[in-house]
Specification:
single chain, 738 residues, alpha+beta, 5-stranded antiparallel beta sheet, flat
Length: 738
């Protein structure tokens, strides 16, 4: 006969919606893990989590009422301590056995049954016993306590419970929200557990307004979900409620027609799922005149402030209709629809007002105001930062093929100068998420052209993992300058990410720099960019220190920090660490990534080609032997004399063995060919050409003693190996493949 199912539900006041999904998952998984550890579950037990605005719960199948007894072996003490010369128990052993529940009258019969084993130091006594399995009440109480203590609660609140004692009083409880009921059913039987001042029973509540029965009395664990749906008008499962809401959203969009679709936003779906107990999707609309406002503003205010789902047409353009997910389902929904339309209208009117007001001033007129906005107390204002970004952008632009075109340089300078100006607009003040985006709109309004406007809009990109890159080269240059200025400046003052804290998004900036250099195929050295950033910041801070005694106080320590060569190395290491993680996420093996990045290739745009070459090389039959030989050569050179490793020429007159002559002759043929292929960027062909060295290299190590007694011969052979090592490791450090 199958063991009954278990149901646990904690009924509370409305939980924080952005945290509900994680709270539900944590509550259910911890309960399951704890019960499993207690031996109360079967191998095929399955869990169903529940999380709605007012409840956390879990349904677990095949739960035992009593865990099986477990054999336990406990270490007692060395034989020499526990038994006397006649083999009888000493007082120390008698005391130890008593602590384990063995009565003094039973000791004599227990002693012969004690196991004797060596613990590595001495022969030791062990006591075998059976530990009684936990009851469900005990195990569930422990599991519930653990589940509540481990909840990822964003902020704990305190509330009071009236005590049960004769004298009136209050006791404080700390939890995410006040809890009102606890349900614990094993089959149809209540499990006697308690928490947060509540004792378990079978009573819960459904929807605040639409439950057909209140309270809902759960008959047995397996009836919970169906009873809540039928009597309580609640879809208890988070995933089921979300799926129903998605179904209704698409059905409502289909009724509107015209190929419209609800905006795709997983975070919004999760949040709204956590706000309703039974979703009811309704179609609303607003006046078409608001569509003159940039759609990003309207979409953001509807999503962020009202939790509505805007409707987009087939081309992705915002329509004047939107979807509301209501928590009630009245027969006549007109009042609900009208109420939501009235609520959204002032929000859209505010957005239109901000947009109209902002366009009365040009972006250029706002730039002086940036000098009143502090960026960082050790790096100055946004105005001073803008000057640094402008200088860096022009320096980066000069490194590109378009760098000789005055129009290109002018566009880069204009975009860099105006990139932060929208921070002073009313729209961005209300919606900081729109910075850059609004700058692009206002730039077009000012007649600056699409190239500059797109660059201003895009210079924050990529904003997150997988985000698109700036659309044009001007935007790429300004984005690089902006991110490098932040990276180098923060490293210069020692403001580095720690753990999961990264307030200036330095990890994201490093990934952005890396992606732009690679995906835009920019032939620019990353080290040169970092050096440029350091020089620009040093020059800017020096000017500030000279102009103001107050600025000199904080600028001079920063200048000292930026002088250190360690800044260049630290920023490079930070970027390469992010690059290594990104490449592994893309499916490259750790060995392939380490082999390429060990050389710190300055042209990051070359990295994909190098990785492809290493992967192709690793498939060759010669690869394993050459990788091992390369590792061996590296170890030999590390141990060699400094003089030997700096020799540049190989003297053929000092060759004594045919194997070294053959290796040198083969290198004379293959290395120039491989070098030519390397210079042409054909890394795969370069490595495949060098693969032909396997035979001569194997013969060299079989027949030649590198550390010959004759110093001149030894140094000559080391020089030959050094030349081979340099030729083999231009694309990647092949020893990492060994």
């Amino acid at each position: 006969m199958n063991a009954p199912s278990l149901l646990v539900e904690l009924f509370v006041e409305e939980l924080p919606p952005k945290a509900l999904k994680k709270l539900g998952e944590s509550f259910a998984s911890t309960l399951f893990d704890q019960l499993q550890a207690a031996g109360l579950l079967s191998k095929d037990s399955a869990i169903t989590p529940f999380a709605s605005p007012r409840r956390l719960g879990a349904h677990i199948t095949r739960v035992q009422a009593q865990a099986q007894d477990k054999p336990v072996q406990q270490k007692l003490m060395p034989v020499s301590v526990g038994l006397d010369a006649s083999g009888q128990a000493t007082p120390a052993l008698i005391k130890k056995l008593a602590a384990l529940g063995v009565a003094a009258s039973e000791v004599a019969s227990v002693v012969p049954q004690l196991q004797r084993q060596s613990d590595g130091k001495a022969e030791t006594l062990y006591y075998d016993s059976m530990v009684k399995g936990a009851s469900l009440a005990t195990g569930l109480q422990t599991a519930l306590d653990a589940a509540l203590s481990r909840l990822p609660i964003p902020k704990v609140m305190s509330y009071q419970l009236e005590t049960d004692c004769e004298l009136p009083g209050w006791s404080s409880v700390h939890f995410v929200r006040p809890a009102h009921r606890l349900v614990a059913l094993h089959g149809d039987q209540v499990v006697p557990i308690q928490t947060l001042g509540l004792k378990a029973d079978r009573i819960t509540h459904g929807h605040r307004f639409e439950a057909t029965v209140d309270p809902v009395v759960i008959r047995q664990a397996d009836d919970y979900e169906a009873q809540l749906a039928q009597e309580g008008s609640v879809i208890a499962g988070f995933d089921q409620r979300r799926a129903e809401m998605v179904r209704q959203l698409h059905a409502a969009a289909a009724r509107v027609g015209g190929g419209v679709r609800p905006i795709d936003d997983d975070a919004l779906l999760d949040e709204v799922t956590a706000l309703v107990e039974r979703p009811n999707v309704l179609v609303c609309e607003f006046e078409k005149q608001f569509l003159d406002v940039p759609q990003e503003c309207l979409i953001l205010t509807m999503k962020a402030n009202q939790k509505y789902f805007p409707l987009l047409d087939a081309s992705g353009k915002l329509t004047h209709q939107f979807l509301v997910v209501s928590n009630i389902s009245p027969a006549d929904a007109s009042a609900v629809i009208g109420g939501n339309e009235r609520v959204v209208r002032p929000r859209l009117a505010d957005a239109k007002f901000f947009f109209d007001q902002d366009r009365k001033k040009t972006l250029a007129s706002r730039v002086p105001g940036l000098h009143q906005v502090v960026f960082h107390n050790k790096l100055g204002t946004q105005g001073e930062r803008t000057e640094r970004v402008r200088a860096m952008a022009k320096g980066i632009a000069a490194l590109l093929p378009q760098g000789q075109e005055p129009a290109f340089i002018q566009a880069v300078d204009t975009a860099a100068k105006l990139a932060k100006a929208d921070l002073l607009t009313d729209m961005v003040g209300e919606f900081p998420e729109l910075q850059g985006i609004m700058g692009g709109y206002y730039a077009r309004h000012d007649g600056l052209g699409n190239e500059v406007a797109a660059a201003i809009e895009d210079h924050y990109k990529p904003r997150f993992a997988g985000d698109e890159l700036p659309r044009n080269t001007v935007g790429v240059v300004v984005a690089l300058a902006d991110k490098l200025e932040t990276l180098v400046g923060m490293f210069g003052i020692g403001n580095l990410p720690t753990g999961d804290k990264d307030p200036f998004a330095l990890r994201r900036h490093a990934l952005g720099v890396m992606r732009m250099l690679i995906e835009k195929d920019l032939h620019v050295d990353v080290g040169a960019l970092i050096q440029l950033a350091i020089q620009v910041i040093q020059h800017n801070l020096t000017q500030q220190a000279q102009a103001s005694a107050a600025a000199a106080t904080w600028a001079k320590p920063v200048l000292e920090g930026l002088k250190a060569d360690a800044v260049v190395e630290s920023v490079q290491s930070f970027i390469f660490d992010r690059l290594a993680g990104s490449l592994r996420d893309q499916g490259y093996s750790a060995q392939e990534v380490e082999a390429v990045l060990a050389l710190r290739p300055q042209r990051l745009s070359d990295v994909p080609n190098r990785l492809a070459a290493v992967r192709a090389f690793a498939m060759l039959p010669e690869a394993a032997a050459l990788a091992a030989a390369n590792k061996r050569i590296g170890n030999i050179l590390k141990k060699a004399d400094e003089q030997a490793t700096t020799l540049a020429q190989v003297n053929t007159a000092l060759f004594h063995e045919e194997a070294e002559r053959h290796l040198h002759a083969t290198m004379q043929t293959l290395v120039p060919q491989a070098s030519q292929q390397f210079q042409a960027g054909d890394y795969t062909a370069s490595l495949q050409t060098l693969a032909a060295l396997r035979g001569p290299v194997d013969a060299f190590f079989d027949d030649v003693m590198v550390n010959a007694d004759d110093a001149a011969v030894r140094l000559n052979r080391l020089s030959l190996l050094k030349a081979l090592h340099e030729a083999m490791n231009r694309v990647a450090d092949l020893s990492r493949l060994a």
